[in-house]
């Protein structure tokens, strides 16, 4: 028994060590921020996510695409199909070719992907001083720190410390790796006018847009967690039954 | 019974009719029903069955994922995200498959650890062990190619770095790499062939698993004491004793699996793989998946390109010849007072290698990795052969049933310890 | 091992173990059953496929007697601007002569426009008759080259192996010149 426990502990250490290696590597700490989707049972605060959509639409979307999302997805965000359709229709998308072989423009529909601000990456670079604004569809999955990092980044613009040499056209950010980011500080107080009268502070907008982006990156999160709870409860009961049966069967041997 | 028909013992007429012509029922009964199995397994002996189930889970989810995946550089990343967003339960299939790879390695590493601790590789089980190492190698190849398929940054650069290992070989190296790529960089032909092979190899693994089990059922299982069963009093039929014990272990295993899949599905992955592959920018800190880190650390511990590659392949090749490196007739480490601490230290060395493998290639990690890698090799090439000559093993129990019975023989505390299942 | 199997201790009656085994096995079976569903479900149309459930088409440019084909859910939809003679012909048909009786009025929303899915109801070929040069069969509608089914100017089956009329999809006139199918 003694030996087995040791062996199990060793085995566990063997498996966990490489994992903790990465956790230790993350030295950066972000400002503390709480999200509705934190923890095991967290879910998306729809109001915050919708405000985040507004921030994305009015601010971020001028440079950042979200090409994996479609307007129909907004129904999952709590919009009615009519509201989502209105959002879609407020964008002009290019379709075609038509019968004459020409591309044409039309209002967006639910089935359309989010409109890209630039026709391609080269155009995006050309308009942004050579920097490519990343696609935001899965950004919280693609960055260490996820939503916390997004919030920290958006609220992390500062004046460079004395002696810090900045590249031309770059901005100082406390949380961006290397601290020099091509994106300017675009969130200013009351940048957007929230429909629900929430004061549009920079922190509020950053949190809302981080919520929206997390939803965009993991739209399955709520269903996943709900299903996980049920499945694990089921497995625990099944484990109890199996263990009881195992004891019964093995009882013969002693 | 008619000439040429198998002599079936089954009474049910339908089963009997089939069994006489194709004795699958007799075979199942013999191999998984009445199969005599040592009675003193601890829970480490569950991991073979767990590995088998994981392989089936991986094949099943993989086949369904392949129905929606597009193996093209311009569409692979988006097609995986489409699976996550639009395909019904696609996220579930993908997260099971993605985390299943990690679970598979956790299970197989534990299985290998058990085999090494209890000397399961020793005569007459050398081929059983070697088929196991073949499975391990195939798993590594499959996992590597599967990781390339989502075509994220880590996929692309992992593929680039690993395929470039072959360029270390003199003269033919570069031709091999070009051949592997099907071009002059990792690109669409590479992705396509990796998809093809990633689909193929699991079935090859299943074939080798069959051989692995066939070999196991010739020699019979080893057990925590490492002494062969002396007679019927030492064994119990596989069913129901071990079927139920494996089932219990399986359910517990699924709980751990479910926690990963449903609550921290991306914990074992790397965020950079959610950035689409970009051949022009290497991520600042590239690491392989966690299960390759110890070998990656060995690669980096050697300052010479070819030397590092050879050491890395050598570290796995050594496993093939382990049965002949360890000449001690005693199997279980319970009765090997010297080998036991050396082996546990070897495990620590592997853990340390895994840790530094995930760290940047700078001090003090480089030095640490060199010491750990040196010990890794010394254990196989120096310590084990030497111990076989100088070690005085503890007295072995006469049979399995004696120490298992209460008030067993006059054995050292460690050996007389009760197996876990009775705790 | 035989004796241990043959004589279970008296305080462990077989029935209790059997009952427990049955409960456990049923539970496990429920679990397996629940796991099968996501796999089957994943093969059903995905959400992006379902989202493309409707197609829009401009019909203003289609002159009388002309027909166009548009795509809807990966299938051809025939849009035919019928002439007065064709409407006349479709309405004159006797119900008793039809294999799958349906009035022409029940198959159109506006008399001039016949909109049907261009898939022969026999085995899924696309019938001829959209182009003026196509063979249209004896009834002036469509002719399926695969097995010779013939449809009239209302898309009804008149001759050949097809069992039913060409299917009329759900569609709406968004305006006089624009329709949405689906």
Can you put this structure into words, describing what you see?
Chain A is mostly helical. Chain A is 44% helix and 5% strand. Chain A has eight helices and four strands. In chain A, the strands form two sheets. A two-stranded antiparallel ribbon of chain A has the order 1-2. A two-stranded antiparallel sheet of chain A has the order 3-4. In chain A, a hairpin with a 7-residue loop joins strand 3 and strand 4. The two termini of chain A are 18 Å apart. Chain B folds into two domains: 257 residues, Cytochrome Bc1 Complex, Chain C; 105 residues, plastocyanin oxidoreductase (Helix Hairpins). A two-stranded antiparallel ribbon of chain B has the order 1-2. In chain B, helix 5 runs antiparallel to helix 6. Chain C has two domains: 30 residues; 132 residues, Rieske Iron-sulfur Protein. The longest helix of chain C has 28 residues. The radius of gyration of chain C is 29 Å and the shape is elongated. Chains A and B meet through helix 1 and helix 8 of A and helix 4, helix 5, helix 10 and helix 13 of B.
Please sum up the structure shown:
The complex is a heterotrimer of chains A (254), B (423) and C (182). With 423 residues, chain B is mainly alpha-helical.
Strand order of the largest sheet of chain B: 1-2
Care to count the β-strands of chain B?
2
Biggest pleated sheet of chain B: 2 strands, antiparallel
H/E series of chain A: HHHEEHHHEEHH
Broad shape of chain A: globular
What is the chain-wise order of helices and strands of chain B?
HHEHHHHHHHEHHHHHHH
Distance between the termini of chain A: 18 Å
* Rg on CA atoms of chain B, Å: 24 Å
Helix fraction of chain B, binned, reads 55-70%
* Helical fraction of chain A: 40-55%
Uncertain runs of chain B are 404-423
Total tally of structural domains of chain A = 2
Q: What portion of the residues of chain B fall into strands of 2 or more residues? A: under 5%
Round the Cα radius of gyration of chain A to an integer and report it. 24 Å
Give me the side-by-side strand order of the main sheet of chain A: 1-2
Number of helices of chain A: 8
Largest interface: A-B, 51 and 70 residues
The top-level CATH class of the largest domain in chain B is Mainly Alpha
> Uncertain runs of chain A with pLDDT below 50, 5 residues or more?
20-26
Spell out the CATH superfamily of the largest domain in chain B: Cytochrome Bc1 Complex, Chain C
Could you state the oligomeric state of the chains shown? heterotrimer
InterPro entries (chain A): Cyt_c-like_dom, Cyt_c-like_dom_sf, Cyt_c1, Cyt_c1_TM_anchor_C
GO molecular function, one term (chain A): metal ion binding
Protein name (chain A): Cytochrome c1
Signal peptide (chain A): 1-23
